[in-house]
Amino acid sequence: MTLSWQLVACDNLLLCQFMVSYEVRDGNYLVARNEQDQIVAAGLLCRIGNGEAQVDIVVAPQYRQQGIARQLVSRLISQADEMLLQRLTAHGESKFWLALGFCEVDVNTFAYILTQAERQLVTTWHDGIPVTKFLALDIVQCSENTLITSASMEASINVHQSMFAGAIYSQAVLTGWGLIHLRLQCSGIKGSIVLASGNIKYRQPITSEPSGKVVADLPMKIFTPLNAGEKVSIELEVVMAGGNSERSCATFSGRYVILPISNTD
What we know:
- The protein folds into 2 domains: 4-113, Aminopeptidase, CATH 3.40.630.30; 117-260, Hotdog Thioesterase (Thiol Ester Dehydrase, Chain A, Roll), CATH 3.10.129.
- It has helices spanning 13-18, 68-82, 94-99, 115-128, 130-134, 153-156, 165-187, and strands spanning 4-9, 28-33, 39-49, 52-59, 87-91, 103-106, 109-113, 138-142, 146-150, 191-202, 210-215, 232-242, 250-260.
- 28% of the residues lie in helices and 36% in strands.
- Strands 1-2-3-4-5-7-6 form a 7-stranded mixed β-sheet.
């Protein structure tokens, strides 16, 4: 089936007829039309806060189980990226939303972190920790359980033509901090992340293209004690490497603590 996609206002007559059994919210809906120009699906990004929106979708019963809802959500995610949103939330069947990369943050409630959240994290580093801007610390890859960072070798070089130890340590610490930050943002729970303790083992010099990689399963439930005013402790291991090799040049082991923040703060 060939579909055409279009943005229409919430007071569009055909949209209102299609949504007769559902609540119509303010905003422009992304609709899918079939060959007969009938609306078969509609979706909306409903702004709910600074940098956040809720995904609302409706697919006509006779057109379900045909992949239309997946296409609709994919297009809404692209729209959210263009709007520079950082986080999306949705409600519904877990199998559907989890398959699209959303994380379950509560019963039948799901969240998705957008690329703008990664860009904002880099900006936070550069604005709050000037040395990270000098080192050109950046995010190379980010997923639910992985964060990979890069830095400038030229800015990190020492008299031995290798990356100086302080830069290695800094990049490793912030790589672990960054993964926790993005997962905490996904959960929608506020918290202040600090490094409680850290240890690094240097195995061999880094002489090109420094990279830091952390892989950890951080389910949303790990952050729930923050809602009760309790702190959360997380231990991570970050591997530092050089060039295109994944061979460990240094390994950082750190214990991070997340302190609760009141919603009124």
